[in-house]
Fold:
Amino acid sequence: PYPSYYREMAPINRSDPTAIARTGVRKLQPDEGAEVMGEVSILDGRPRQDFAAGHLPGSVGIELGDSFAPWAGWLLPFNAAVVLVLNPDQSAEDAVIELARIGFTEVRGVMRGVAEWSDTGRPLVAHQAVTADDLKRRLATGDDVQVVDVRDPQEWRDGHIEGSIHRYVPDLLSGIGELDPDRPAWVICRSGNRASIASGLLERHGVEPVVVVTGGVNEVLASG
Structure:
């Protein structure tokens, strides 16, 4: 599968093949972030464990790294206005350049962590972060566990957990009706990155995620 932003790249490169300048990113205070929340996409680039512990309502968590921009370009409307949420030790300038390379140039600012947001009395959303071993132990009890596998189609064909539901991350919302909203969805991929990305999408639609942030399907299958 090809990310949806690919169709935009050739026209942009033909019309403006200029090097991308490195620019500063304005830090937003909680009041400023709250003012624009309905107008922007909140893109949380902190580590998946930090995202699970608490994040702004409606945000999408994509760890800052090699796959940060591709997943943002796939899941957000093209060139959506963005507010970043990053830890103090993460480079907002790097994030802006990565986004600009796929045509996302409307970064309104960065919030440094979520503590200041929470300290003003504004709510955070959290979900449970678990390991592949935790899921193995839960499956071993014989309970009816709702497992959502968000790997790509080829990975699914190569092997998956019996009884799990397959929805590749970009197709997750088109199949949201297959999930039981009254039960937690144990979300799993290969390493935890895509499962964490999927968690924010599920939360938006009223599904409680339990995210396997360490390990993945291969580790579960290896247990038999």
About this structure: The first helix runs from residue 6 to 15.
